[in-house]
């Protein structure tokens, strides 16, 4: 499938909502501020993130504004991972760094610690991947994680990503230099997991 990714994003009639068995990926809203702050302010959830935990609710408000603005500019799709029944924010799943020429993007995700170990991140990322290959016509999706984050590593491998190398001391987080491991998934390798 060919075509300009940015044109496809611009042609979307609205922020896409993706629904799975237990989660829904939806547009960020101002009433998500407490959920976003609970997630990005939690040192445990942010242990392997590329920035320090948030310290104020105002930072969460700014993050939500940035998420909405990035979509308006066609630069990113920052979904809120919401519980399908309650619609309560549990995390985020993001497609970003779109490269139209090479038909690729990056995926990132974060989930509140109360929801770890239940397969919810896998379900959310699967929805985003399926949509990105089908709707945007991406050829490749990349992810980079802190290699010490074993649960995230297992999630990517389970979804079909391949580890493609280690970038040493790529980020400084709280004064500590951390490594980054790059993963890649090609469209022809994607097979949506059976639920």
Automatic annotation (TrEMBL):
Annotated N-acetyltransferase domain residues: 23-195
Gene3D superfamilies (alphabetical): 3.40.630.30
PROSITE patterns the record matches: GNAT
Pfam families per UniProt: Acetyltransf_3 (PF13302)
Family matches, as InterPro entries: Acyl_CoA_acyltransferase, GNAT_dom, Ribosomal_N-acetyltransferase
Name the record gives this protein: GNAT family N-acetyltransferase
Native organism: Luteimonas rhizosphaericola
